[in-house]
Amino acid sequence: MSPSALRLANATLADLDALPAHMKGEIIDGVLYAMTRPHGPHQSVAGRVHTDLEPRYERGRGGPGGWWILPEPGIELPRAKEFSPDIAGWSRTRLPSLPRDAAITVVPDWVGEVLSPTTRRHHHLVKRPFYAAVGVPWLWTVDSEAMTLTVHQLQGERWLEFGVYADERDARIEPFSDTALDVSAWWPDP
Q1: How far apart are CA 25 and CA 4, in angstroms?
Q2: Which domains does the chain possess?
C-alpha cells in the first residue's frame, strides 16, 4: 500500500496511536500520513546505513563521535506533532543529551531516508519539502531499488544535490566525511 493522507483537520497523537499495528504514521502540518510498515529490503538497507554510522559517530569507535545517530526517532516540532525519519542524526553540540521521557524537539542535523516503492512518492512530495522548510541541513536519499545514495545539502530553502554514490568502498560523504564508508555493502544481496 502506498502512503495515503488521512486528511484530519487537526490530527492528534491519539489519531496516530489508533493506527492498526501493521501501519505507521506521521503528523506533518496537521495531516496524518499513514502507510504500511516497511518490508525487509527497506529495513535491511536502513539497518546497514545505521550500522555503519552509529559506532563511528555516536560511540566514537573508528570515528570522531560527537553525534546521536538514531533509527526511526520520534521527533516533535511546531509543524509536526510526530515524524520519524528512517535514520536521523544530531550533533551533540546542538543536542547534548537525549530526552528520557519525551520526544526530541530539535531539528536533526542530518536525515537519511530509504526509498522503496511504497515510500518514494511520500518522500518526494511531503517529507523532502518538509525537511527543507524546518531547516534540516543534510538529507541522504537511499534508493534501495536503484542501489544509490543521493546526498542533498540545504542551500537557503532549496536542496542542492551534493553527490551520488553507488559502489564506492571508500566514500567520504558529508556530513560524515571524517571516515570512509563502504556504500557498496549497503545493498541487498542478489
Answers
A1: 10
A2: 39-186 (3.90.1570.10)
